[in-house]
TrEMBL record:
<dbReference type="InterPro" id="IPR036812">
    <property type="entry name" value="NAD(P)_OxRdtase_dom_sf"/>
</dbReference>
<keyword id="KW-0521">NADP</keyword>
<dbReference type="Pfam" id="PF00248">
    <property type="entry name" value="Aldo_ket_red"/>
</dbReference>
<dbReference type="GO" id="GO:0006693">
    <property type="term" value="P:prostaglandin metabolic process"/>
</dbReference>
<dbReference type="InterPro" id="IPR018170">
    <property type="entry name" value="Aldo/ket_reductase_CS"/>
</dbReference>
<dbReference type="GO" id="GO:0044597">
    <property type="term" value="P:daunorubicin metabolic process"/>
</dbReference>
<keyword id="KW-0560">Oxidoreductase</keyword>
<protein>
    <submittedName>
        <fullName>Aldo-keto reductase family 1, member C19</fullName>
    </submittedName>
</protein>
<comment type="similarity">
    <text>Belongs to the aldo/keto reductase family.</text>
</comment>
<dbReference type="GO" id="GO:0004032">
    <property type="term" value="F:aldose reductase (NADPH) activity"/>
</dbReference>
<dbReference type="InterPro" id="IPR023210">
    <property type="entry name" value="NADP_OxRdtase_dom"/>
</dbReference>
<dbReference type="GO" id="GO:0042448">
    <property type="term" value="P:progesterone metabolic process"/>
</dbReference>
<dbReference type="InterPro" id="IPR020471">
    <property type="entry name" value="AKR"/>
</dbReference>
<dbReference type="GO" id="GO:0044598">
    <property type="term" value="P:doxorubicin metabolic process"/>
</dbReference>
<dbReference type="GO" id="GO:0032052">
    <property type="term" value="F:bile acid binding"/>
</dbReference>
<dbReference type="GO" id="GO:0047086">
    <property type="term" value="F:ketosteroid monooxygenase activity"/>
</dbReference>
<dbReference type="GO" id="GO:0047023">
    <property type="term" value="F:androsterone dehydrogenase [NAD(P)+] activity"/>
</dbReference>
Amino acid sequence: MSSKQQLVKLNDGHFIPALGFGTYKPEEVPENKPLEAIHLAVEAGFRHIDTAYVYQTENHVGQAIKSKIAAGIVKREDIFITTKLWCTFHRPEMVLSSLEKSLKNLQLDYVDLYIIHYPMQMKSGEDMFPEDENGKTLFDTVDLCATWEAMEKCKDAGLAKSIGVSNFNRRQLEKILNKPGLKYKPVCNQVECHLYLNQSKLLNYCKSRDIVLVAYCALGSQRPKRWVDPSSPVLLNDPVLCDVAKKHQRSSAQIALRYQLQRGNVVLAQSYKENEIKENIQVFEFELPSEDMKILDSLDRNLRYAPAPFGQGHPEYPFSDEF
């Protein structure tokens, strides 16, 4: 692993780099941008790349990693790759083939981490956001425990080193953890987590069950027009955050990332700008004192940038519970 990276131990004995590079591409971003950004991220020292079937960037990740391996810059075992099972593939018989499809896109024999992207199920098929004629999401009902058993088979088959979940609330995590005959616990819960939504209750619960919290939207959000309210505040412009950044002669983004690392979280950073990518990996070069951590804790306002409106109304929609 890159000497710039810190590692976090997962409950199955594997290790995950504490800082990851996110590859979600909003529709308004040009097609070639993710590929450029992944190249820059690996060159800057990122060794943890986070993608998902629904992002449609798995092929970019695969191309970039393949070329970096061919150039002798990294070996496969140096790189930690995460991808995700989309909501239209929750039926147990579809889970393994969905991962195989992702592996083909990634040009890999295995992923380091495979996670259930959301607990809601949507009508299976090639349409990633199936809707009826009125634009209403077409849901499916699949037992989360049955989906999890199929995830366990992916691990047993060696196609995923570790398995976890994303956007699960406490109740949904407990459903898996209390499942009779549970073979593997989820190693992580990847959730929206930032200074305006610090997830302290869910974080404490995950820690008590030896589940790593992976923070996405840690810098606020890329604000894709389709999913994020344009009137929501821009996190990195927060005056309190800017004051802390000024005090440490760091960027607001570096402070927001460092805050998550010091809470014991794995954190994902995303940017398409070379200077920001290089800046974001410098978060291991400084530490925030406890008084600054308390100041940053106080910014929590339970604001969710990405409420997954397509899943509202599903019985497993996760964001109606307190945590």
